[in-house]
Every structure is written in C-alpha cells, then in structure tokens.
Amino acid sequence: MARALPQSVAPQDLARELGSRGELLVMCDYDGTLVPLAPTPEQVKPPPELLDVLDRLARAAGKAVAVISGRRLADLRKMLPVGGLFLAGCHGAELMEPGGKVELLTDPEIAAAIEDLEKRARECVAGHEGFLIENKSFSLALHYRLASPPVAAKVLKRFAGELKALPAGENLQLLWGKKVLEVRPRGVHKGKAVSYLRRKFPRAVPVYLGDDITDEDAFAASSEGFAVLVGERPRPSRARFHLASPRDVLAFLGYLAGCNLVTYGSTGNFF
After folding, report:
1. Which strand (E) or helix (H) includes residue 130?
2. pLDDT tens digits, residue range 248-268?
3. Looking at the structure, do residues 97 and 122 belong to the same domain, yes or no?
4. What is the Cα–Cα distance from 203 to 196, expressed in whole angstroms?
5. How far is it, in rounded angstroms, from Cα 241 to Cα 7?
6. 228, 229, 192, 243: which is closest to 24 by C-alpha?
7. Domain range for residue 217?
8. Deepest in the core among 63, 129, 205, 270, taking most CB within 10 A?
9. Is residue 84 part of a domain?
10. 269 or 39, which is more confident?
11. Cα dihedral: 56, 59, 61, 67 (round 10)
12. What is the phi/psi pair of residue 175, to 5°?
C-alpha cells in the first residue's frame, strides 16, 4: 500500500462518517495517540476523561475497543483499568481479552534473548546521562529523549552492533521511533494484533488510530476501514485520515461513545 499525505478531518466529521457503518472495531495506540508524549514513560498518565470515554465506548452496542501499544501488557492493565477493553502489549506480542484470557503471539523463548540484550544495552549507556532502558519481556526499548544528540548517536551505533553480535540477533528487529530505538521479535508488529482482532470481529469496520512509524503495519492491516494518523502535521503514511492531537482523538472517541460534547469536545482543556 502506497504512502501519501492523509486527509485532515475534524473529530466530529470522522465520527459522523462512522456512525452509519454498523459494527465498529476501534483500535488505538497509547503514547502519542490517546495521551501526549512525555520525557519518560512513567510521566504519561491517562486523564479521568479518557478512562471515562473508553469505558463508555467499550460498553456501547456494536463496538469493540482495543489499545495496541509498544508498552508491556502488565503496564497497560495498570494504566487502563477499564472493563471490556482488548489490550495488546509489546507491539502485539501479547494480547489480553476482556475476560482476562492472554494470547501470546510470539515465541516465549524470545524473553531470554531480550534479557541478554538488556545487559548489553546497560553496558552501552554506562557513564552516559539521558538514557532509559525498558525490558518489556518480549521487546526492549532504549529511550534517548533526554540525551545529547552526539552522545546518543555514539551509544545507538554501539547498541546496534551489540544486537548483531547477539546469538539470537537474527530473530530480532530494530525499529526506530520518536526518540526511542526498539527491538522486537522479527515478524511481530501491531498489524499482527489488528489481524487477530479482525478475525474475532469479521463483520466490524476496523478503525485504527496511531501516531508513530510503529503504527504503519497497523494502518496497512486496517486499510479496508479507517486508518487515522495522529500528530501535529500530517506526513506520508498508509493512513487515510489525520487528526491533529490526542485531544482530537478524545473528542472523536467521545462522539462515537455518545458522550456530552461540551465535556469531551476538542476545545476542552484535558491535558
């Protein structure tokens, strides 16, 4: 699927277009989509308004709701204590259904390789400030948002070399994100989680909202529905539509859930 500039739309117009489409499968990335990005992952907290909207949407007739993130599944469960949600962590490597059933969509032995890689990553950043390493069991993230660019370039080059030297390195893939370098199992991506959910809801129109390069696979897997890029400015993407911010995403979800539009409209001060 070719990449082009997606069409910028207003939250209410996009929701209105979907209102006549019948059953919906609404899937969202977390960081940068449902909530704004922050210097560290721990600083990203969902506001009460977002939890309320997700709860209302998940309970609405004819709508299935999922959050698909690069974060660990355990972290998503803590941050989003909302019944009725499907949650997919580690870029789709692990997925939990609303009843609590967990499906592993990758080889469980990959966790040992990630543990080995974490040790190497810590050696790479030793003595340098501004780095954060996240071992997510089935993927690893090296954040460098707070590091100086020259030091970051040096550390990331060494880290990439360590990945190549890893015995299981051929089964892992480097992925560049927004001030983060991630390593995930080869063949595992958010599009795989989207495909899993689409098989569970074959009659539902897929809707996927995401902001990063890691969401492009999910956009492609949602191509027959509504793929929505989130960000201040549109960029070439597999997504068809564009919303400007997490605030607009909240407004869009609020319209879908039938919430009070004065409370959840895009002009509100939520973040």
Report:
1. none
2. 999 999 999 987 544 444 444
3. no
4. 14
5. 5
6. 228
7. 7-105+188-264
8. 63
9. yes
10. 39
11. 80
12. -140, 120
